[in-house]
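Section handout 9: paired folding examples.
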Amino acid sequence: MIYIGADHKGFKLKEYLTKWLTENKIQFFDVGAMEEVELDDYPDFSVMVAKCVASSPVEHKGILICGSGHGVDMVANKYKGIRSALAFKKEVAIQSRAHENANVLTLPADWLKPEEAKEILDVWLHTNFDNAERNQRRLGKIRTIEEENFK
């Protein structure tokens, strides 16, 4: 399952992307915001997506959107099993999946046109982890760090 969430700064881009996901018959669950409310807080939506993905980090994926992308990315990466990557162009999104096996994609709504964000999301969803030994080793080190810090 794909979980998607955004604050007020990412709301319009989230609506654009959920329409694209629907049109492409890609199953997702929208955790909100359900309307553009300027006083909402990005951590609330990031927590919801991160908890959903963390419940099964191999099977689930997440999409987070805020103005810069920084805030939701920082919050998501506080959760064990989450590998959130801030992507601002297709090549970064591809590398985040192929090398780091990212399970959450963070998009900066202030810096992307809707069409660019759609292209980034599309390649991210269709790029697989490359399973190279060096990348497996590095992910193993991340898991060790998580085990040490999430006791």
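Moving on to protein 2 of 2.
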Amino acid sequence: MRFLKQYWLVLSIFLLVVCLVLIRTFNREQFRYDAVKWVESSIPGSNVVTEDHILQIDGEVLLINLGNVSQADRKPQVNTLTMDPGLILEKENLSIIRKNRGPVILFSDDSSVSARVWLVLSEMGMKNIYILQNDRAGTPEN
């Protein structure tokens, strides 16, 4: 009992640190640190969709424009949201993505931007995230 009275401050700080570490460890907002697992699904291309495939998807499709892609050729029945790739981890943006009841499809003029955002969101534990394949991929530019 005398020990507790003598070291109550040290013990309370220690318990507080342990609680904070546990909260941080089990927080769903943090990254999963399992990049290899998420990258494996990109090898066969299961994380990539085409515009034709979007119309066949069931659920509320959310397209996220991560760049300056023209909106004119997008399908009118699909929700489109323009977002800066650097702000994808803001609380409001993450909330929009999580609340969507269907697939979230990322697209950009630069496919590497979409791929990086896909990897970040996937590592955060989000499912049903896809990359819209650029129709001009493989077409030589003259």
